[in-house]
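Reviewer comment 2.1 asked that we show a complete input and output for one of the modelled complexes. We chose the magnesium ion case, as it is the one discussed in the main text.
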Amino acid sequence: MEASYIVESKKRCLEQGMTPSAIPFSKNRLSEEELLRIRNNYREVISVMNFFGEKTRSQLDGIPILIALTDGQGYIIDFVGNEKIRSLVNKIGMEVGTLMGEEDFGTNAVHLALQEQKPIELLGCDHFHEHMHNTACYSVPFQANQVDHLAGTVSMMTFVEHHSRFALPLLSNMVDSMEREIELRRTNHNKDIMNHTLIRSVNNGIIITDAQGYITECNQLIERIMNRKRTSMIGRWICDFEPFSSYMCDVILYGNRFENQECTFLISANKRITCILDAIPVVNDHQELTGAYLQLRDITERNELENQMLTYEKFSAIGKLAAGIAHEIRNPLTSIMGFIQLLREKPLSREMHVRYLEIVYGELLDLKRLVSDFVLMAKPSSPEKKEHILQDVVIETVQFMTSQANFNNIILTTDLYESPLPIYIDSVQIKQVLINLIQNAFEAMPKGGQVDIRLTCNKKQNTAVITIRDYGVGISKDQMKNVFNPFFTTKENGLGLGLSICYRIIENHNGKIQIKASEERGTKFSITLPLPK
Ligand code: ADP
Ligand code: MG
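Response of the prediction step:
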C-alpha cells in the first residue's frame, strides 16, 4: 500500500502529461554563477557532508551508493558516490546543479522529503519514472543552523537490490551528526573570534597552553617580550621558554598557582619592563586539568614613578642628612684638631702622647662609621651574594657582639634551626643588619637584660626567619610608622639610619623585615629571607 503522498505525487505527474516510460530530464538547473553562490553559502555543510558521506560510504564498502546534498529547493549542490552509481545518475541527467523537482524527475525522494519535511524512502516502482525503478532512494531534510537558516536534504541512492531497512535510519543518524557538527563548528568559530578579540585587545600578556604544556595561544605583549612571532611560539613546548617555564611547568605538573610574581624582562639593549605574573591551571567541569593560563601585567611605568618618588625622598633625606652630618662631624673634628694642636705644640710624655693619639683615633673611627653609614644610605651597594650557611653567619655575628653585650650587662641567647641552611646572601650585609638590630636591642635596655636570637625555617614558604627579641622600652604605635624612615630616631645621639639601611639590604635580598612590638614587653624584629629552591 503506497503512502498517500506518493499516490498524490504520481497523480500530479500524470496530470502534467508526464509519461512513466520516458527518460526523465531536468527542466530546471542552476546557472554556473548561481551554483557557485549557493555552494559558497553551503560550504560548511558541504565540507561536513563530505566528511560524513565518505565515512558512511566506506562503511557500506562495496555497495554502490550515491549521497547527494540538495538545497532547500531541491537543487543538487554536491555529490559523494561510487563510479558505478554515478553512471546511472548521469544517464538520467541528474548532476550537480539540477533540480530534483517533481516536473523534472517525477515522484522522487528529495522532492517528497522537502514537501513533507520528514525522512522519505522510495523503493523501485514507488518512483514515477520506470528508469528509476531499479533504484532505492532515501532523503532526510535538515536545518543547518539557526543563524543562516540553511536548509536542504541529504539523500542517498542505491540499486533496489541493496535496499535495507536500516538505510533510512542510517541516513537520519548521519544528518543528525552533521547538524550537530555544524552547530559545534559554528559555536567554536564564534568562540574563537571572541577569544582572539579578547586576547589581542588586552594590554596584558597572555599565554595559554594545553594540558601537556604546548602553547595554543599568546598575544602581542608576549611577542614583544620574547622578541619572536606568535606563530613561531604556537605549538611549541612552554618549558622551552624561560622565564615562563619555571612557573608553567609547576602549574601543569602539580596544578600549582602563582599570583603577583614580579619579573623583569630585557626587551632591548636599554629597555627593561617589569611585570606582575600570574600562572594558573585551567580545569574543566570535572576539575581535570585541561591547560594552563599565564598573564603578565606591565607595571614598568608604575614602578618608574615609584622609583622617581623614592629618589625625591632620598634627595630630601640627603638634604636633611647634610645638616645633621655637619653637626655630627663638627664635634669630633674640633676635638681632633684640639688634640693634634696639643701634640704639635708641647713636648709630651710618651704615655700622654699615646693617650691623645688613642682619643684622636677613637674620634676618627666614629667619623668613619658616620661616613660609611652615609654612603650606604645614599647609595646602597648591590649585594655580592655567595652561598653561606645561615647558622654560621648568625653565630659569627653573635660572637662579635658578645663582648659588647657583657659590657652592657646583657645576656645574648640563641636558638638556631638544627640542620644547616645553605643560603645565597651577601654575608657582610646580612651581618650588618643583625648588628644594627642587636645594637638597637641593647640600646632599648640601658640597664641590661636579655636578647633572644632565633633562627627558624619555614618549609612551606621555603624561607628562613631570623628573629631578634628584646625586653626593652618597646616601640609605640606612633613611632612604628616611622622607624624605617631615614633619620628617624628617638635617641639623643642616634642618627636614625640603622633601620632604613637594614630595610634596604633585606629588600635587596628579596626578603622582608617586620616588627612586633609593645611598649611593655619590648620589641621583636623578624627577618625573612628566601631559601634557594
Ligand atoms: P637609631 O638607632 O640611630 O636611632 P635606627 O634606625 O636604628 O636609628 O632606629 C630608629 C628608631 O627606632 C630608634 O631611634 C628607636 O626609637 C626605634 N627602635 C629601633 N629598634 C628598637 C628596639 N629594639 N626597641 C625600641 N625602639 C627601637
Ligand atoms: Mg640603631
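The chain has four domains: 4-189, 202-298, 304-378, 386-530. We note this here for comparison with the apo prediction described in Section 3.2.
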